[in-house]
Each structure stands twice: as structure tokens, then as C-alpha cells.
Amino acid sequence: MPIQRRALLVAAAAGVLAAPRLARAQQGGGRLVILGGGFGGASAARFARDHHPDLEVTLVERSPRFTTCPYGNLVLAGRRDIESITFGYDRLAARGVRVVHQGATAVDAGRKRLRLADGAEIPYDKLIMSPGIDLRWGAVEGYDEAAATRMPHGWIPSQQPITVLQKQLEAMPEGGVFVMTIPDNPFRCPPGPYERISMVAEYLQRAKPRAKLIALDAKNGFSKQPLFQDAWAELYPDIVEWRGASEDGRVVRVNPAAMEVETEFGDKVKGDVVNVIPPQMAARIAREAGLANETGWCPVKPATMESALVPDIHVIGDACIAAPMPKSGFAANSHAKHAVACAAAALAGRAAPPATYFNTCYSHVGPDYGISIVGVYRGTPQRLEEVPGSGGISPRTAVLGERAAEHRRLEALYADGWYESITQDMFGIA
């Protein structure tokens, strides 16, 4: 995609962050409760407080601080520290959001109550659920919570911060082997494992140049695959080895004691560090509330993000089924704003605004080297679909020619700008 068109698409997406063009509902008041304070929940709270002042907005989030998954991989490369990707909720509270730092244990949809860990209940007129994901322990034989201490996932910051994996990486011997296992779709942040490959390789190239990285993938294809593989061949040709499913890349069991993984056809791969990213599903509270179907994910109505199974509850972010949109931070932010607008409209007795959603996924793959993919989606009562001709992906190096280095440098800068913009938007900083 030409850089001018890329800039226009990114600018349009940034405009959604700064001033979303969602139809504003007639203010009718009501109690809006939001569960989960990540990309979806924090965005919903900020947007509801700023754009629907008659709503009583309560955000329920167990932790007083939130560490983002985006930019977590940059910690592995030594480019970021954990504090720089961690945020608090004080500014949301100062804007008038009632912030409750407790875990939620159950949803009583019949009585419209959210039950907290201390037994208290919060009544709601509309509930927005952004509960995130759970890992499917045991989906890979031998991989349970105990195994994760030796073979970290680093995929849910509140359960296991990326610094656990960082410490193992830094302690890995020169000439050692870093093994990563990657699940089949769907999972949180489709480009995430491949950015992680890139950031680990960047660190190894600098600190342990004789080391190797072996990525074992349950799929044959992945997001931005040609771009990632071009970058690995260019930047890390002697470090990165990626094996897809057809090359016996699907891992079926692990042996933490031996620091070894076994593939579908019996190949055993041993690592000094083993990063297992297991299959995933919607968080338990969503499943127990009856919001998930047999897939473990939560179906929603594309036009409103309301649950397809339980009335007056909207499910946003990673937990919901919103294909062809990916499970990404930007997607959750976009879901959030539309869900709030629809909830406010329903409380005011008005029709929901038209459903348009946006997504941008940036990935860092090396120093001054960024790539991205953009999509715009339309929700109808029947389906969620990508708007034809609306999105695009970074052009490959062979297409860019002499302009490649500058293009990649600019995309890396755009990525940093995107991260600063979306975190400011979420947490009420600007």
C-alpha cells in the first residue's frame, strides 16, 4: 500500500480515537456497568463518561493497574520496561467514572446484578463485558499452571507478566535455543506471536548471537506472514526457524522437567527457554454467565455488540466472536465505543447508530522496522463484514525498493504514535 494511503487510513483510525463519529444517542440516563479495565473496558468507561454524561458509569476491575499486551514484546527486546506499559485508573475516576477495584464472581442476568468478590452486588440497566481470555489448560498435554512456571506463556499480564519470560531469556546461555509454540486460531492478537519472534530475535542477535529460535506453529499461515518472513530473512537469517503445521509444527504435548516439547508426528524439540502460547477461550465469568457457546467464545449481534444469548449485556474485545475482525486492542477500543453508543440509545428509547468498526495492528520486527495491517468493518443484523477496498497491508520490501528503509522507519514511528494515542484515549490522560 502506498505510504500516503497508509497515512490517511491511520489518520482516520486515529480520528476515531480522538473524536468518534458515532451517532450520539438522546441522553436518557441509566446505570451502565462495565466489567474489565483493559482495552475494551477502559475505552468504554472513558467514552461513556465523555459522550453520555447522563449515564451513571461504573467500571469494575480487580487490579489497580493495567499492563498492556501490546508493546509487551518490546520488553523482551530491551526497548521498553514494564512500567512504561502499565497504567492506572485515577484519571478515569477524576472524570467521574466510579472505579471499583474488586474481582467480579458472577452475573445475575435475570435480576441485572453483577456480584463482586466480597458478596456485594452492583445493579445495572446495561452491562458491558470486556472480561478478556482464559488459557485452555491441558489443551496441550502436560501444559498446566504448574508447567507455566518453567515454560512461561507471558500472554495474560495479570496472570504472568512478560518479565517472567524476559528473565529466562536473559539467563539463557549463549548458543542456547529458545523454543516457542503457537496455537491454532482463534487467539488473542493474531500477529502477537510473530512480533514476539522478532523481538526475541532482535535481543538474541545483540546479546547472544550464536543462539537459535525455533517457532513451532499449529497453522500454516498467519497474519502479515510474507512481511514477517521477509524481515526474518533480512534481519535474522541465522537465528529464526519457523515451522508450520505441514512441517510438523503442531505441538501436542510438553515435558517441563526435560524442557522439551513434542510435535504431532513425534519430533521432540528441546529448549533452554520454552515459551508456550496455548489455545484460549473467553474468561470464565463470561462462560459461567451463559454468554459463550460451544466454542468457548461469546457470540454477539454485529450491529450492536449485544450478546446473542443474553439480553442487556454487550460483550466486547477478545472474549467475543467478531470475525473477520481480529482479537486486538484496537478492535476492542472500537467495539467499546459502539457498544456504549448502542446501550445509551436503547436506554433513551432510540435506534442504535450504524455499526462501523476499525482495526489497526502494528508490529515491530526490528530496529526502525515496523509493519501494519488496517481494516474497516460494517456490522449489520445478519453479519460483520470487511468494507471492500477499505483496508490494506504494508507493501513488501521487493515492492518498495529503495524506499523500503524509510517506509519501515515511518511505520515504526506510526506504531509508537498509535500506542501513545490509544492508551491516552483509554485512561483519560488527554
From TrEMBL:
GO MF: flavin adenine dinucleotide binding; oxidoreductase activity
Region forming the signal peptide: 1-25
Species this protein is from: Roseicella aerolata
Alphabetic keyword roster: FAD, Flavoprotein, Signal
Domain Flavocytochrome c sulphide dehydrogenase flavin-binding: 353-427
InterPro entries registered for this protein in UniProt: FAD/NAD-bd_sf, FAD/NAD-binding_dom, FAD/NAD-linked_Rdtase_dimer_sf, FCSD_central, FlavoCytC_S_DH_flav-bd, FlavoCytC_S_DH_flav-bd_sf, SQRD
Pfam families referenced in this protein's UniProt entry, alphabetically: FCSD-flav_bind, FCSD_central, Pyr_redox_2
Residue ranges annotated for the FAD/NAD(P)-binding domain, each copy included: 31-142
Domain Sulfide dehydrogenase [flavocytochrome c] flavoprotein chain central stretches: 163-278
Protein name in UniProt: NAD(P)/FAD-dependent oxidoreductase
